C-alpha cells in the first residue's frame, strides 16, 4: 500500500512539473562531438535545392533547427526561433529549419499562410523514415532519447566549418530539445560579438 502511494505521489509530482512548464521539453545548450555532415535538401519555396555549406558562407552564426511540423514542442519553440531570427538577422545570424516526418500539408498548416520567416528545407516527409534520417543518427550520438526528437537544434559557426569534405565540423553546439530562450540569446550575442549592454537598432529607435 505504501509503495502504491509513493508511486501515485511521484506520478502527481511529475505531472505537476510538466504542467508548470506547459508541456515543454527544454534542453541545455551543450558542445557535442557530432561529426556534422554537409547536406543538400529540397527548398520548400520551390527554388533550387539548398546546400548547407554554400548557404552558410558569409554568415556569422547559423541555427539548423530540425522539426516535425505536427510536433507540439516544435510549435512552442517556433515563435522563439522567429523572434531570435528577426532580432539578430541583421547581425549575421540566420536560420534554416529542416522538416522531418511531416507532409507538405502538415508543414503548410504549421507555418500558416505567411509561411516561415526563415528558410525551410525537407529531409524527410514520412514518419516511416524516422530511424533512417541523419537527424536520427545525430540524436543517437548526442544522447537524445526522445522518440521523435523534435525540435533538435544545432548551432554552426560558418567561419570554422571545413571547406572541403563531407564533414562540416567535428563539434557543434547542440540543444536536444526546446531552446531556453534567455540562455540561447546570450550565446547568440556572444557569437555575434554583441556585448550584454549593446542595444539593437530596433530598440534604440524611438517612435
Polypeptide structure, described:
Helix content is 35%, strand content 22%. It has 207 residues and is an alpha+beta fold. The protein has a single domain (23-204), classed as 3-Layer(aba) Sandwich (Glutaredoxin). An eight-stranded mixed β-sheet has the order 1-8-7-4-5-6-2-3, with helices on both faces. The longest helix has 19 residues, at 2-20.
Tags for this model:
single chain, 207 residues, disordered C terminus, 7 helices, Glutaredoxin, 8-stranded mixed β-sheet, 8 strands
List the SSEs and their pairings.
Elements: H1 2-20, E1 30-37, E2 40-43, E3 50-51, H2 52-56, E4 61-67, H3 72-88, E5 93-99, H4 104-111, E6 119-122, H5 134-141, E7 152-156, E8 167-175, H6 181-191, H7 201-204
Parallel strand pairs: 4-5, 5-6
Antiparallel strand pairs: 1-8, 2-3, 2-6, 4-7, 7-8
Amino acid at each position: 500500500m505504501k509503495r502504491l502511494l509513493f508511486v501515485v505521489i511521484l506520478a502527481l509530482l511529475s505531472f505537476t512539473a510538466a504542467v508548470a512548464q506547459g508541456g515543454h521539453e527544454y534542453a541545455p545548450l551543450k558542445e557535442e562531438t557530432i561529426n556534422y555532415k554537409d547536406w543538400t535538401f529540397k527548398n520548400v519555396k520551390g527554388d533550387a535545392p539548398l546546400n548547407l555549406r554554400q548557404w552558410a558562407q558569409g554568415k556569422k552564426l547559423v541555427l539548423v533547427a530540425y522539426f516535425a511540423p505536427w510536433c507540439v514542442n516544435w510549435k512552442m519553440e517556433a515563435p522563439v526561433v522567429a523572434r531570435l531570427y528577426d532580432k539578430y538577422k541583421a547581425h549575421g545570424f540566420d536560420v534554416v529549419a529542416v522538416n522531418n516526418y511531416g507532409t507538405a500539408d502538415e508543414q503548410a498548416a504549421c507555418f500558416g499562410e505567411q509561411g516561415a520567416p526563415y528558410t525551410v528545407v525537407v529531409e524527410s516527409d514520412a514518419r516511416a523514415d524516422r530511424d533512417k534520417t541523419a537527424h536520427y543518427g545525430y540524436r543517437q550520438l548526442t544522447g537524445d532519447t526522445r522518440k521523435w526528437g523534435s525540435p533538435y537544434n544545432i548551432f554552426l559557426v560558418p567561419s570554422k566549418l571545413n571547406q572541403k569534405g563531407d564533414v562540416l565540423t567535428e563539434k557543434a553546439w547542440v540543444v536536444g530539445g526546446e531552446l531556453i530562450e534567455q540562455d540561447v540569446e546570450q550565446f547568440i550575442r556572444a557569437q555575434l560579438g554583441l556585448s550584454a549592454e549593446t542595444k539593437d537598432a530596433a530598440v534604440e529607435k524611438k517612435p
